[in-house]
Write a structure and sequence with these properties.
Length: 293
Amino acid sequence: MRMRTEQQMLDLIVGFAKERDDVRAVVMNGSRVDPDAPRDTFQDYDIVYFVDQVAAYVDNRAWIKTFGEIMIMQTPDVMEGGQWPSLDHKFTFLLQFADGNRIDLTFYAAHRTDGLRHGSLSVVLLDKAGLLPELPPPNGSDYATAPPGAEQFAGCCNEFWWVSAYVAKGLWRRELSYAKYMTDHPVREALMRMLEWHIGVRSGFTASPGKLGKYFERRLEPRLWQTFVLTYADADYERMWDALFAMCGLFRETAAEVAAYFGFEYPFEDDRRVTAHLQHVRGLPRDAERMYE
């Protein structure tokens, strides 16, 4: 099955709206309108249709076949306990097609003015009813990292060093899933937040790190990027220890820089004490009955 082109998809998206009187306007959001986003075949189409009755598209889904053969579909508004029709002002269909294209399609009630507020990455494709205000040229300003406050910075540092001790405990016990979770969730999330602030400091808080740090390779200095790569380990315990210490060094360097830039206090004593503890636990014999003698 040949993948449809961007122009074919846009013609289909706009054509669908033109053929239906109840569709009042169409907006496209996201990476396809971001002038700074890399272009590739996996980019989806983030589309909002402003319609008279959202329920008409939720209750009768025959319209879906208009867009092509579905590989798989998801309706996040009614997952995890969501209810319909209590969400009658909006409903989202995530549509993955068999040809590789994907549309994240939201139907929004045209009478709800709150739906007319758009982020900086929005383009009006069609406005039959004059609903939408004139939008500025799309830009990534809404997605640039915001500068941290002193308490936010301190909390990030505390979380990183506090949970690092959990990782050490899991590695010493050889509790693989526990150690992996603590590494790749709370510890990594704190590290990534600090890296986002580092990128913000270096760019004047104008550059976006991308969702989940997907632009880190573009935004970080090559040396820091290479260190970040080393923070990902397989299931070998020694390599997981190496990755943890790589995270510590990267966090320390970037956090100290962010602290200096804003005039915050970096918790050097917490860093020193926890790092010494991590080193101690790494060398602790497997049959040790006490952590410290």
